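Students often ask why inverse folding is considered easier than folding. One informal answer: many sequences map to the same fold, so there is more than one right answer. In these notes we will look at a single instance of the problem. The structure comes first.
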């Protein structure tokens, strides 16, 4: 249930890298929408009261009052769920390329006790809530300014160390590129050109930083997304293989079995049985 909401407006901002697209305060119960989705923007969630959770890809993040959750763009997640029995949260949708380029994690979770070092952030979020709720004169500009200050404050806490290796940064860029384009036709040469690295060197540093090759990571992203389609859609195996960017249904089936130990059809049947029970 949305309690208060404000859609941001395009305009001149103090920090051109941060634009507030939307801010809303809402109540979340235990019967929310569980279908996963992605956004092209950064989503910043601040828990006002109650307890709940958020599923981000294959992880479940539990939330409590004053916790803060930042979800990077193009990361698959479900809507918030309240468990106590309702949770109230303030959500900011941000066009925020700074976090998109700089953050290694797909999401950042700051518990309330850690936010003690960022008391100002908590105060800014409460001020944002007041502006959206009361909408005094100039509240649109105030919301934008507060959002910019929140991002700048968090960047000091979350920014990687200044001595981060260039190769590590390039691997993060490649991984984020794959996260956004994994359904498209992507080759190792494409990724190397994007990163401006020799493809053999890219494989070496990606293995070192991520624990797998770029193509293995690409296939894992496709398999993860195909699982959701197999369990929640009526698309055929052939259609799913095409949707996920596989060159053929047989290659999709081989990759899926190698990753999960079962075929796509077997996985679908098991998912359907699990839903019935």
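Output (designed amino acids):
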């Amino acid at each position: 249930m949305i309690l208060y909401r404000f859609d941001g407006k395009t305009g001149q901002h103090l920090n051109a890298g941060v634009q507030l697209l939307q801010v809303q305060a809402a109540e979340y119960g235990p019967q929310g929408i569980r279908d996963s989705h992605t956004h092209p923007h950064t989503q910043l969630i601040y828990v006002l009261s109650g307890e709940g959770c958020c599923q981000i890809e294959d992880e479940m993040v539990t939330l409590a009052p004053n916790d803060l959750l930042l979800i990077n763009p193009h990361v698959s997640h479900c809507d918030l769920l309240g468990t106590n029995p309702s949770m109230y949260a303030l959500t900011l949708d941000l066009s925020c390329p700074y976090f998109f380029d700089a953050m290694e994690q797909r999401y950042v979770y700051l518990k309330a006790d850690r936010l003690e070092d960022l008391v100002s952030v908590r105060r800014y979020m409460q001020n944002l809530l007041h502006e959206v709720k009361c909408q005094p004169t100039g509240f649109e500009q105030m919301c934008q300014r507060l959002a910019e200050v929140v991002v700048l404050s968090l960047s000091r806490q979350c920014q990687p160390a200044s001595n981060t290796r260039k190769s590590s940064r390039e691997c993060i860029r490649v991984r984020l590129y794959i996260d956004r384009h994994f359904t498209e036709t992507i080759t190792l040469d494409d990724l190397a050109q994007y990163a401006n690295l020799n493809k053999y060197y890219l494989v070496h540093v990606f293995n070192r930083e991520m624990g797998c090759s770029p193509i293995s990571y690409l296939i894992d992203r496709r398999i993860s997304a195909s699982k959701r389609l197999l369990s929640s859609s009526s698309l055929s195996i052939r259609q799913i293989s095409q949707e996920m960017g596989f060159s053929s249904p047989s290659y999709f089936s081989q990759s899926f079995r190698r990753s999960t130990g079962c075929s796509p059809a077997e996985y679908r049947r098991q998912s359907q049985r699990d839903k019935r029970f």
